[in-house]
Amino acid sequence: MRTMHALLLGACIALGGCASVGNTSPLVATGAQRAGKLTIQSEMEWTRAAGSRYQMWTIDGELLNLLYLVPTVKEGEYIFLGQRESKRRPDGPYYHHGLREDEIRDLISDGLASAGFIGIQATNLRPATFGGRAGLRFEVTMANPDGLAYQGLVAAFEHDEGLTLAIFIAPREYYFPRDGEKVSRMLDTMHWE
Questions:
Q1: pLDDT tens-digit series, residues 128-138
Q2: Taking the chain, what is the end-to-end CA distance rounded to the nearest angstrom?
Q3: How far is CA 10 from the centre of its chain?
Q4: Of 89, 53, 58, which is closest to residue 169 (Cα–Cα)?
Q5: Which helix or strand (DSSP H or E) is residue 68 part of?
Q6: Looking at the predicted structure, is the pLDDT value of residue 85 above 50?
Q7: Which of 35, 61, 104, 186 is the most exposed place for a label (fewest CB within 10 A)?
């Protein structure tokens, strides 16, 4: 269990840092919800933690289900925020405008590996439209170092300020089958205002 908590802490740091909480309500009701200029329709009630540039939603706790929303990953930023590309750090999962769908998929997979997940497999890459903006969707499977198997959904699209990213992950047993379809429908409602 200690390794699981360490993985979650590492993932939170890799996913933008958990320390700062923004001005959003800690509860997410059903209906339209905003994360900056990103709007998403929630079918379920969630608990929300937010920083100035991201939101993390959960129903049962971050180890059991996590929806990570980043309204804008800017040019040259680490895909999950937290650092920028530099001469000292030229390699890594850094976003650049105009990447192909498969390159964005690989960037997100590399970011998940950097967050401590293992055995990452991305499948079913396909184009998607979010409020008239071209984007992509795909599924992901992976495990934590203790062997807990996760399944996830990813949605992303570019806009004039950068890349919007949404990732939902939950254990393959019980939690993903329970919530995956609802979250998939939620991801379809994302749009940029």
A1: 999 999 999 99
A2: 41
A3: 15
A4: 58
A5: strand 66-73
A6: no
A7: 61
Question: Could you give the C-alpha distances from 165 to 2, 67, 68, 89, 149, in angstroms and in order?
Answer: 29, 10, 8, 22, 22
* pLDDT value for 181: 97
Dihedral of CA atoms 106, 72, 140, 2 in degrees, nearest 10, equals 110
Q: Comparing C-alpha atoms, which of 59, 65, 138 is closest to residue 105?
A: 138
Residue 16: both structure tokens together? 């933008």
pLDDT at residue number 89: 54
Tokens describing residue 159: 């806009």
Phi, psi dihedral angles at 107 (to 5 degrees): -60, -45
Distance from C-alpha of 129 to C-alpha of 133, rounded to nearest angstrom? 5
Q: Give all strands of the β-sheet with 149-159 in edge-to-edge order.
A: 27-28, 46-50, 55-58, 66-73, 162-171, 149-159, 133-143, 118-130
Give the pTM. 0.84
